[in-house]
């Protein structure tokens, strides 16, 4: 599977996580929901690009990033199996949450963007994640849809595909 497509799927999955939908639904107005989605994504962009440049320009860090990606993919799978969400870091809405809350989906996107590093393609991977996140946060909240269990199914599939993808990269390199 292509890293760009995988990043889109990760973004859709990230956006439908219950904490994002709940936060967006609390905001009540469509404008505030979209502002939340945009600021949340901007926060991730601010932190992701420098990390990707740092990791991607060094083969040893790229290898370590792939290992970390596999670990976080397993963590994502454990979330699905145990029906428990792991967030590491600050727990504020918007820009701070986007920048400082570390979730498996965010780590996986950074790993994907760092692998076979090319600044333009890496930026496309991050932007695909961000656009899919903005879309899913905004659409689900604006349409008043609260996913019950679908995000767990999506996360499980994404975790398995990502583990397979990253292991294949390690074997090929």
UniProtKB/TrEMBL annotation:
Protein source organism: Sulfolobus tengchongensis
Record lineage: Archaea, Thermoproteota, Thermoprotei, Sulfolobales, Sulfolobaceae
Transmembrane segments: 39-56, 63-82, 94-113, 125-147, 153-172
Keywords annotated in UniProt: Membrane, Transmembrane, Transmembrane helix
Name of the protein this chain belongs to: Nickel/cobalt efflux system
């Amino acid at each position: 599977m292509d890293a760009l497509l995988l990043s889109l799927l990760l973004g859709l999955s990230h956006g439908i996580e219950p904490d994002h939908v709940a936060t967006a639904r609390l905001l009540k107005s469509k404008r505030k929901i979209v502002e939340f989605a945009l600021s949340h994504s901007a926060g991730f962009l601010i932190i992701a690009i420098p990390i990707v440049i740092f990791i991607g320009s060094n083969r040893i860090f790229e290898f370590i990033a792939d290992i970390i990606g596999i670990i976080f993919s397993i963590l994502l799978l454990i979330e699905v199996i145990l029906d428990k969400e792991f967030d590491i870091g600050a727990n504020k809405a918007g820009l701070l949450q986007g920048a400082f809350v570390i979730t498996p989906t965010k780590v996986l996107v950074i790993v994907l963007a760092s692998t076979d590093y090319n600044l333009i393609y890496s930026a496309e991977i991050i932007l695909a994640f961000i656009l899919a996140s903005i879309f899913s946060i905004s659409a689900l909240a604006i349409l008043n849809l609260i996913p019950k269990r679908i995000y767990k199914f999506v996360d499980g599939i994404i975790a398995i595909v990502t583990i397979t993808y990253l292991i294949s990269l390690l074997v090929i390199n």
